[in-house]
Amino acid sequence: MKNIKLASRETEQHTIVKVSGVEVGRDFVVIAGPCSVESEKQTL
Q: What is the signed CA dihedral for 32, 37, 39, 44, rounded to 10 degrees?
């Protein structure tokens, strides 16, 4: 997997991705949600 340098631990540079103004990879981020969805109503 040496061709995926930004996602690899072989580089000292961290991968930073901005999502709605939050920098994932720099800020402390918690992503949570249901492990599964059983109906269309739950999805909406």
A: 30
